[in-house]
Design brief:
binds heme C; single chain; 4 helices
Length: 129
């Protein structure tokens, strides 16, 4: 009896979660109509061939605060690769500790985006940069 009573909260939790699971499955099925598996290799941008040296240079620049006027911020400040490519702030903090109007989208896999920025105002990463 004690055992049955103890498992009641667990049973109730499962029962409550069932409609959510059905919703999740439906959402996943709908999403599959819009999204494809991410390709293994990124597309080549404007004939910009990817080489080991270029990848290494990009990584160095991404983490280099000397790219900012104050020498304080790097790309990683707002697109922290340890936090999924974001800063997890409501809006990003920039030069002079100013707060912008938008938060930072993840840069992970952004080469595959159909457009860049929240409003899609750049067609690709070359234009975004
Ligand atoms: C001060 C914070 C900040 C720094 C530093 C910063 N970004 Fe961003 N980044 C943002 C914000 C905010 C947006 C979204 C702006 C918008 O949509 O108008 C953005 C957008 C982007 C996007 C578009 C991604 C998408 O999904 O649309 C890319 C790519 C990007 N940044 C790369 C970089 C790179 C590379 C650097 C360094 C050279 C950099 N960012 C430095 C805040 C920052």
């Amino acid at each position: 009896m004690l055992r049955t009573l103890a498992s009641l909260p667990a049973i109730a939790a499962i029962a409550l979660a069932l409609p959510a699971l059905a919703d999740d499955a439906e959402l996943r099925a709908t999403a599959k109509d819009f999204f494809e598996t991410i390709p293994l290799n990124p597309p080549e941008l404007n004939g910009n061939v990817m080489t080991r040296a270029r990848v290494d240079l990009g990584a160095m620049l991404f983490f280099d605060p000397r790219l900012s006027r104050s020498n304080v911020f790097s790309c990683n400040s707002c697109h922290n690769v340890g936090m999924g490519g974001v800063d997890a702030l409501e809006t990003s903090i920039g030069h002079g500790w100013q707060k912008g109007p938008r938060n930072s989208p993840t840069v992970f896999n952004s080469v595959f985006n159909i457009a860049q920025f929240w409003d899609g105002r750049a067609a690709d990463l070359a234009e975004q940069a």
